[in-house]
Amino acid sequence: MMPAWSSPQDSAKGWVLLLAAVVVLSSVCATAFGKVAAVSRAAPVPVVYYTYCGLNDRTGACSLRMLSETLTGSQTVSTMPEWFNGECGPANGHARATVAANGTTVVALEDVRPGALDHFGTPICRLVATNLGTGGSAVLPGDSGAIMRAIQNDGWAISPNGQYVAIPARNGVYIQDVQAGSVPKLIRTGFMVQGVGWYPDSSKLLVDGPGQPLGGRGPVSTANSLFEITLKGRKLGRWQIKPYPAYDFNAEFIHISAGGEVYAEARTLFDPLAGGKPTMPTGYYLIRLRKRPSYKLITRSSSNSMFEFGVNAQAGRLFVIGGQNEICSVSIASDGRHCIRFPGSPELVTVEDVQVALPPS
User: Fold this and answer.
1) CA atoms within 13 A on the CB side of 344
2) What is d(CA 43, CA 68) in angstroms, rounded to the nearest whole number?
3) In this predicted model, what pLDDT tens digit does every residue of 159-218 receive, in sequence order?
4) 54 lies in which domain range?
């Protein structure tokens, strides 16, 4: 028996309205899921950048190239013009082009003297920032003696958002606003900075400094500690990696993941008389900065030289220079690696400085 307020006609209308609502809701959900899927499909995928020198038989002419993370599909970044590194540095002679993690900006050190390709004349070095989206570039101020010597000797690290570069120095870190094109400003630390890495939000730095600041209790050159500093120079903490003098742990290149893990390419020495053992070879390390820091060797370095490297912590991979003219993808968990080698004589062609960043947009 039907309730007094409900007729058969009303019931039929109700079912029709309910069915219509279900259809509409299904359509809305399908549209929403479609949009989410489309956004997911459209999300940019990080790529591997590297510096390639010796193009068109012109030894020393360099270009920025990129690969997929499977190390396939090599292509030149069209918005980044070729440059000549010459004798500008860093001091080990490697060409440098550092890409911001968001894929917006690349900073390269150029030698623009007349006859640079033929090595005639005195090097004329300048730091140039290029917008990878538009191809527009600007020379960054900072060619004064002390700043340029720091750039040539130790290079620099670009912030993930492409806003700043950090330049290690004898008594601190120079910070330069790339987008504003301002003169670098020195953040004093009281010790020689030998390596620097940016936190993902580009608000602070992790610097590699001596285990015994100012040499009061040991040599200034002993690089055993990592210090966290703000862009205004406030030191937030200090973490001892290995006690002096058993080990010398020099982290020249540092990357920090969104989860806070620290990845460093470190040159190490040990003193057996102080208890050091050959268990910390030069290579790539995962460092966890806790009350009691821990470290894990991911893979040994394949070269005596130190190169920039790339990290995709979410995918569990490092991207490093392997042997001569070789790029390798290395598993963070197992050290398993996949490498590709670029053809050409090492005297004429070089492949250097691997990084992971978003593609140009």
Assistant:
1) 17
2) 15
3) 999 999 999 998 889 999 999 999 999 998 878 888 999 999 999 999 988 755 444 444
4) 44-357
